[in-house]
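As a warm-up, study this chain.
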Amino acid sequence: MANISAQSVLLDILTEYPAAVGIIKEYDEAAGVCLCCEMLFATLAEIVEKYNLDRNELITRLRALAAAT
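Now compare it with the structure written out below.
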């Protein structure tokens, strides 16, 4: 996955970058659910919209992880 975007599917991100689960788990409390359990097949855009999460922060953190991998 060359570029993580709002249209990236969570499962695809976790498949390519398994360490991303640590970042995603940090958002579980704010979302009130286990995102990996409930939103595995959703895009990042769907996730941040549904749970009112900071889209730019999440994508920036995931991109930084991908770049470091």
